[in-house]
Amino acid sequence: MALDSKWGVWMKDKLGFILAISAVGFAGYMFTASFFIYLITLFSWDKVIPQLLSGRVLAALLISVSSSFIVAVLAVLVGIPFAYFLTHGEFKFKSTIETLMVDLPQTFPPVTVGLVYLLLLGPGSPVNLAFTYAAVVIAKFYVSSPFMVGFAARRFREVKARGFDLIARSLGADTRHLLFRVVLPMSKRDLLAGFSLTWARAMGELGATMIFAGIIPWKTEVIPTLVFNIAQTEPNTAIAAAVLAETLSIVALISLRRGAKERR
Amino acid sequence: MKSLRLENICKDYGNSRALDHVSLAIEPEEFMVVMGPSGSGKTTLLLTILGALKPDEGHIFMNGESIDNLPVEARGIGYVPQDFGLFPHLTVRQNVSFGLEVKNIPRDIMSQTVERMLSFVELKEFADRRPNMLSGGERQRVALARALATNPSILLLDEPLSSIDEGTKSDVRERLKSILREAKATTVCVMHTPEDAFILGDRIAVMNQGQIIQISTPSELLRNPKNRLVKRLIASMYVQD
Questions:
Q1: Where do the DSSP E strands lie in B76-186?
Q2: A108 exposed, middle or buried (CB, 10 Å; 0-12, 13-18, 19+)?
Q3: Given this model, what pLDDT does residue B65 score?
Q4: φ, ψ of residue B165 in degrees (nearest 5)
Q5: In chain A, positions 119-178, which contact chain B (CB-CB < 8 Å)?
Q6: What mean pLDDT do residues A201-223 have?
Q7: Measured between alpha carbons, how far is A74 from A149 in angstroms, rounded to an integer?
Q8: Rounded mean pLDDT of chain B?
């Protein structure tokens, strides 16, 4: 019996060791990819730092941040009604529709999305929005907004499963009261998480934006397309742009999540 | 408070019949306990009365008028679920006033009603607390106050004592009884524990496999169980507890 238990402890320790090594390996892999750019900046700061304030980088940053913010706000405005409809609506093929609207856009190759929009809203179509600021927003919205809908729908379903909608309705609540007094206040944290991830995903979007909006400096060039465009010819400017975008994403994600945690 | 009558209610979930021709008449101000083993259809019955589930057959009448086509929010039925379902982001006072707010009751009448309900359930000093700062018994009283504040025609309680710990259960049960007696509420209450059912119920409806197999006063049910099945059910539920 004593031997059994010793073996048990040894096995547990061995497994614990393997788990720890795997966890450290994964963290190292992710950490290296995320922060290697900072390491390069640290070692060649004299070449990279001056590029941070170059007009082209700042313009790309402004377009990136503003378009991503518009995308995140639009995602909240249309994502909440859609998530509410998914949760409370009575209709067939609900899970198929959710897969098509939430999961598919996250796995769809962004370059294909850009091509679809180029054919749909590009030269030759009645409304030509290709290579404009609107194209940046449209392309980013398709790829990023499902994060918002996904977060909202998951949380709305939880609230419903715990019976809060039924209780509110038994007390006389209509849709307005149910949404604004129960569902949204109880989903604040998840909606903020959805907003921040939508924004961050939009900041990093490359493929769809590149094809549909093009890479026009000062007009449609965003940080990822700038990095893609000049990585070979002006590596220091590309690194500076990447550092700026990544820092902004990290700060935004951490502060939004922290804010959401405190509000809960 | 109103009377409630169920006529031949049937409800199927796929191929399984959850309610099988259930008929039940509850008098105004009566406390009707629905008792039966797990899966006997008690909660389905409650949700059907509430309007959350639509029966496949049968009709429901309140004071003789059909409520079959009324949605949950228009039935005027108070509902207290098993875990009391207090809104966690609202204080006790805000929880109690919720039903009055959504009905656009004038502010002065609303605050008077809320204060009266909080005094009624003896929770005035907890008015500004959130539900997570209350005990099980206190949460139950807030949920009752919230449901009673809107002056419902019928009150539905789903296992109100199941999440109360044994140490305080008899005290909570007595308070529940006196609150509902004083409120003169017509109540349908689902219960799993015969002891609670016998103490609280004016009458008890025993359910098994979606059917009501006996409706009696507690003393009559103990003295004259209709058949061996009722006897066995009561005995088995005592053993389970």
A1: 77-80, 154-158
A2: middle
A3: 92
A4: -70, 155
A5: 162-164, 166-174, 177
A6: 93
A7: 11
A8: 89
- How far, CA to CA in Å, does A208 sit from each of A137, A138, A217, B227? 10, 9, 17, 73
**Quick one: which of B136, B54, B57, B150 has its CA closest to B95?**
B150
Q: Which residues contact A157 (CB under 8 A, 6 or more apart)?
A: A87
pLDDT tens for B7-41 read 999 999 988 999 999 999 999 999 999 998 888 89
CATH at residue B83: 3.40.50.300
Residues of the domain holding B124: 4-240
Residue A1: what pLDDT? 47
Cα separations in angstroms, A238 against A227, B117, B208: 5, 66, 73
Contact A44, A238 (CB under 8 A): no
Q: Which two tokens stand for residue A226?
A: 């700038």
Q: Contact B78/A186, CB-based, under 8 Å?
A: no
Report yes or no: B208 and B217 within 8 Å, Cβ to Cβ.
Answer: no
Inter-chain contact B79–A170, Cβ cutoff 8 Å? Answer: yes
Closest to A172 in 3D by CA, of B145, B161, B77, B238: B77
| Class of CATH domain A51-263 | mainly alpha
Please compute Rg for chain A using Cα positions. 23
Alpha helices in chain A (DSSP H): 2-43, 45-52, 55-88, 94-98, 104-107, 110-121, 133-161, 164-170, 175-177, 184-186, 188-204, 207-213, 223-230, 235-263
Q: What is the pLDDT of residues A118-132, one digit of tens each?
A: 999 999 889 999 999
Across the interface, whether the CB atoms of A182 and B87 are under 8 A apart is answered: yes
| Assessment of whether the complete model's pTM goes beyond 0.95 | no
Residue of A70 and B241 predicted with greater confidence: A70
Q: If we measure between CA atoms, which residue out of B102, B71, B73, B98 comes closest to residue B87?
A: B98
Amino acid sitting at position B38: S
Contact A177, A168 (CB under 8 A): yes
Give me the number of domains chain B comprises.
Answer: 1
The string of pLDDT tens digits covering residues A249-264 is 888 888 877 766 655 5
> Are the beta carbons of A138 and A129 closer than 8 angstroms?
yes
**Minimal Cβ distance to A167: which of B81, B101, B103:** B81
